[in-house]
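DM from R.C. (forwarded with permission)

"hey, sorry to bug you on a friday — could you get me a structure for this? deadline for the figure draft is monday and I only need the backbone to look sensible"
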Amino acid sequence: MLKAIIIDDEENARITLAALLAEYAPDIHIMAQCSTVPEGVLAINKHNPDVVFLDVEMPEYNGFELLGFFKKINFEIIFVTAYSQYAIRAFEVSAVDYLLKPIEIDSLKVSIDKVKNKCNTTNTMQRLNLMREVYSGNDFQKIALQMSNGLLFVEVNNIVLFEAERAYTNVFMADGSKFTVSKPMRTFEDLLSDRQFIFRPHRSYLINVRYIKKYLRGESLITMDNNFTVSVARERKSDFESLLKELKLA
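My reply, with the result:
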């Protein structure tokens, strides 16, 4: 039996989530339902839960500010939120689990399975601090890559390129290492859309232009510092060459 606490300022949201858990996750026991972050802090200290379902936008304190009340997070957190571009980006960058309102049953089941399997317990504070940085609008330097045995935090500036491989993505690093992540490349393109030096020259590749070693304009071929060769799609060639000029790389 896993112990859970729900923190959400909307009573209907708390009731709905509690009902879904009772029906689809009967082995999760709800110890308390709280309408504010301070109430939630007291309940967490009292019940020592395994998982906290935490709303993001609440009056007085938002869900992220709950983290500041604890020196160590020894429970899983599943954020529950209405759609917010910044919130979703923060979750994706840091590999923190979340549910969108209205909650879908399949998504709830996946999140519960993660809690039961303790898939996200590694580097908990690092993940949460990274998420808080992104949500607050600060520029993030790392992203979390979900590996089969946990999470790997890598510097964005040390990524040479991403390669799409069906539903997976290969990530090539400047030190020669390569990691395969079970996320589509579009996820990383969206996450890094504000980085001028990240460019998608072809539907199968996303590159860091700082690691370009050679560009053959006539053949539309890029050679990266790791000797990986990337094609430039015809419809992307003009944008690519304009970017090189803008960054004074050509």
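R.C.: lifesaver. The first helix runs from residue 11 to 24.
me: no worries. The first strand starts at residue 2 and ends at 7.
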